[in-house]
Structure formats: structure tokens, C-alpha cells
Amino acid sequence: MTRDKQTAFEVVKTTPYLRHLGIELVEIEHGKAVMKLPMKDELRQPYGLLHGGATASLIDTATAFAVVSVTKPEEKCTTVDLTVHYLRPVIDETTICTATIVRAGKRLITVSAEVHNEQGKLIATALSTYAKV
Prior knowledge:
By secondary structure, the protein is of the alpha+beta class. The protein has one domain: Roll (Thiol Ester Dehydrase, Chain A), CATH 3.10.129.10. The protein contains three helices and six strands; from the N terminus they run ααββαββββ. The protein has a six-stranded antiparallel sheet with strand order 1-2-4-5-6-3. The longest helix is centred in the middle third of the chain and has 17 residues, at 52-68. The protein is globular. It starts with a helix and ends with a strand. The relative contact order is 0.20.
């Protein structure tokens, strides 16, 4: 890992958007990040299910932290695209996203992600690309 793990955990705790959603960093290592999102009423859509945007935010955050794990501290990256496939609704469970670097090139970084519920059922898959800026 090219960056300090403790710094990554502190960034999650001090970023207002992540605090608002309740996203937590579980694990970070070279090329991989695991984050979780506990269900809370503020994240529900009108039918009482977890809003797809909350799932997408979990994915985008986990993939970003996977990218951070393979880049130098002075390098900045931004999401170029994010494709999410929603496979199962979330009613009351905590969701866990595992993001893994597929390829880290000179300018572009491709990351895959899977979101599971606490029972291990697959909730969503995603593929994202980041560009170094």
C-alpha cells in the first residue's frame, strides 16, 4: 500500500458526506478496499428499500479507496465512469462493498466492485474507471 492506512481511516471519519451516509472503512490494502453501509431510515427510497444512490455512493467510495491504495500521495484521481448492476433489493441489512483494482495504468485505473449483504448474497456489481489528474 502506497499510503498510510491510519490516514485512510481518518479521512472516512472526517468526510462529511461519508459521515452523513454512515459509510465505514473496514479494510484497505494494496489494490483493495472494503467498506460497509449500515441501513438507516434516511437512506430509504419511498418503498422502504435502500436507495440505489446510496449503494452507488458506497461503490464509488470503495473504488476510490482502492485507487488510493495504489497511487502516490501526491497523485489525485477522479471517477471517469461508474456502471452499476443492481441485482437484489436491500431491506434492512448492512451492505458490504469490496473493490479491487483490475488494472492500474499510467493514466487510467480500472476497478471492479461487488456489494453483498450480511448473509453474503450479491446485491450489486460495478465497474469503474478513474483518471489521474
